[in-house]
Amino acid sequence: MDAINIKTTIDLFAGIGGIRLALENNDFNCVYSNDYNKYSCQTYSANFGEIYCGDLNDIYAENIPNFDLLCGGFPCQPFSIAGVSKKKSLGKKHGFEETIN
Predict the structure, then answer these.
(1) Which of 2, 19, 76, 80 has its CA 20 to 30 A from that of 96?
(2) What is the full DSSP assignment across the chain?
(3) What average pLDDT does the chain have?
């Protein structure tokens, strides 16, 4: 059986680019990136030069280049130091408990 030949990726919910960095360090080529958070987009753009910053619902599929692998970032806010500190100061749940009703 031949190995799968995956070369191109897209990076949705990209954050600041951790997934892209790991993949590019292993010879993958990211052909499209998206995130909604303006500060994440600023950092991502500074690191990689391009990102579509906006709601994924507003993107037409035909505007996304062909790709082999779709990557999507895990929502880090409930787990990041900044996110947890903010939640604690507001008396709210954080981490996995945030999603429990």
Answers:
(1) 19
(2) -PPP---EEEEES-TTSHHHHHHHTTT-EEEEEEES-HHHHHHHHHHHS--EES-GGG--GGGSPP-SEEEE----TTTSHHHHHHHHHTT---GGGGG--
(3) 81
Instruction: Identify the bridge partners of residue 76 per DSSP, sorted by sequence position.
Output: none
Annotated active-site positions, please?
76
pTM of the model: 0.70
The 10s digit of each residue's pLDDT in 86-98 is 666 666 665 656 6
For the chain, domains (ranges, CATH) are 8-75 (3.40.50.150)
Whether the CB-CB separation of 43 and 17 falls below 8 Å is answered with yes
